[in-house]
Amino acid sequence: MQKTLLELYRKPQVFCNLPSQGKFYLKGIKLGLDNQLSVRAMTASDEIMLNNPEALLNGEAIINLIASCCPDIAYPYEVPLIDLDVLLSSIRHATFGETLEFTSNCPKCKEKNTLSLHVSQFMDNINFVDKIPTFNINEDIKCYVRPVNYLDHTKTELLQFEFNSLLRNMDVTNLSDYPEKEEIKTKKNQLIVAQLNTIANCVFKIAVPDREIIDRKEINDFIVELDKVNFNKLEQIVRDLNKNTLNKKFNLTCPQSDCGEKFEQEVNFDDSNFFGKGF
């Protein structure tokens, strides 16, 4: 079968290991040698999408970017949040090269410096998920747990942003006088439901004595009705699982000749400028 022009042109540029090791891609992921995912450089249309504030806010820009640059992920919407930083770093590596530039404020001399790290310094700091965690609610019910996925995280963050925006635009000291108070109540309820569903969606399978349940609605309806003790246990498992990601804390040295202060800094990824010349 002949390859298309795009297949001949857009070839994998780098290969990366994912913190999840591909364990939580229920709709499929194709990993190659050494359990690595192939990654392609981004296109001009990808960059245009990344410059769309609305697409960044609702997550569509990142979802489309992953679909474009990581075609071996069958359904980008289910990408675990713990894999996101590795994917973004690898796409940036494939597009711009091995050096990642970022700005840093020295805690001693207060100078703002431009520093750089080799991409291998990031990839050497990955915490991997060795096995799928489980949670026994009782002797008959066993839950299989996955990390929060990017889509659920983005939905919750967007609702939180909208809720905070409503509060900023109102005089909350006299909220009872505002007809808009119902809007705040509605948005708050939406946020609470989204937060509950985010945790519930982390249970992707439940085993009972006579069958395994994977129906999303049945699982969610069950999880949101858990007692507080069991729900808190589940939430803690998810929280611990979400720690298995890229460790972004690095030991840095101020480059100013009259300073040279050594300090630790967490390098955070900002979607709005990560795919520019630096971050």
- The ordered string of helix (H) and strand (E) elements is HEEHHHHEEHEEHHEEHHEE
Whole-angstrom Rg? 22 Å
Regarding quaternary structure, how should these chains be classified? Answer: single chain
Spatial strand order of the main sheet: 5-6-7-8
* Shape descriptor: globular
Count of DSSP strands: 10
Strand content: 15-25%
Mean pLDDT: 86
Largest sheet: 4 strands, antiparallel
Estimated structural class: alpha+beta
Distance between the termini: 42 Å
In helices, the fraction of residues equals 25-40%
- Count of helical segments? 10
Q: Uncertain spans, ≥5 residues at pLDDT below 50?
A: none
Question: How would you describe the overall organization of this protein?
Answer:
- It is a single chain.
- The chain is of the alpha+beta class and 279 residues long.
- 39% of the residues lie in helices and 18% in strands.
- It has a four-stranded antiparallel β-sheet with strand order 5-6-7-8, covered by helices on one side.
- Strand 5 and strand 6 (141-145) form a beta hairpin.
